[in-house]
Design goal:
mainly alpha; DNA binding; 60% helix; 3 domains
Length: 290
């Protein structure tokens, strides 16, 4: 299995195990190695009767080998999930939809999917960082794009058909008045899906639309406070808003990436928005993100 792991999967399992998975695998192989087992028997300690206690020696040896996995249920669960994701055979000629042959939404399938999704969120609220953060901090939570990607990956392993589009359409089939349609979905829409599932949103809104609406409200709030931005300042703010839509958070280090470098990066934004730009960005993160 270790040969099939992606770099991300390998790093995750290494972090959970506290040692490279390859090291654990090499130790497990020893259980079936005749030479190793012969050595264990040869070096078995003497029992109370003065004879070698080979049974205890073998038991201690096996326990030592399997302890890294046997004592780590989270590691075992991740290994099973990853194994399943690699074993799955996909039908690339078909598209997952909640429709029957006539194009009519199958509400029974949608209901079953939503119920399974709700259970998944509840079961993993203390296991997956993104769910844990959204569950415990309903407003202005500092969730990162990395954590959202981790959530998407964790969902994909046991449930490869649970794409954002499929989950969104399931809710749309059941609660059409509470779900906004969208032709395109992004990974950050998972934030909206989780929040809606947790009852923290009355309407399921694509994340980018949510950020856009909050941004409009934030600009109006700034104007009411007497702050009026120039067109050149708005150029920076608009693109910071776009970055938040795509990544759920904006880091000042991103100023040294495109499109910000087109206008001087950090130096350019300081010239336009002043030395308090970090506070401004943090305020935008608080008001627009998550």
């Amino acid at each position: 299995m270790s040969r099939e792991l992606t770099p991300t999967e390998n790093a995750e399992l290494t972090a959970l195990a506290g040692t490279p998975l390859q090291d654990i695998t090499q130790q497990l192989v020893k259980i079936a190695d005749p030479d190793t087992l012969a050595g264990v028997i040869e070096n078995a300690p003497l029992g109370v009767d003065g004879k070698k206690d080979t049974k205890k020696a073998m038991s201690d040896f096996i326990e030592q080998i399997i302890t890294p996995i046997a004592s780590n249920p989270q590691l075992r669960q991740r290994i099973l999930e990853i194994r399943l994701s690699h074993d799955l055979v996909f039908d690339e000629g078909s598209k997952d939809e909640l429709l029957d042959a006539r194009g009519v939404v199958d509400t029974s399938k949608a209901k079953s999917l939503v119920e399974s999704w709700i259970k998944y969120i509840e079961d993993n609220k203390n296991e997956i960082t993104a769910i844990q953060m959204l569950y415990s901090k309903p407003k202005n939570v500092g969730i990162t794009y990395k954590e959202i990607k981790e959530l998407a990956e964790r969902i994909r392993r046991p449930h490869p058909t649970w794409t954002v589009d499929v989950l969104w359409n399931a809710y749309l089939a059941l609660e059409p008045t509470k779900v906004r349609k969208s032709a395109v979905h992004t990974t950050t829409d998972l934030v909206s899906l989780v929040r809606f599932t947790l009852g923290q949103m009355n309407e399921l809104v694509p994340y980018a639309q949510l950020v856009e609406e909050r941004y409009a409200g934030w600009l109006l709030q700034q104007e009411n406070l007497g702050v009026k931005f120039t067109d050149s300042q708005k150029w920076w703010l608009d693109r910071i808003k776009d970055a938040i839509s795509q990544s759920a958070h904006f880091d000042v280090k991103d100023l040294e990436m495109s499109p910000f470098t087109e206008r001087g990066g950090t130096d350019g934004v300081l010239a336009e928005l002043g030395n308090s730009v970090e506070d401004l960005i943090e305020n935008m993160n608080m008001e627009l993100a998550s």
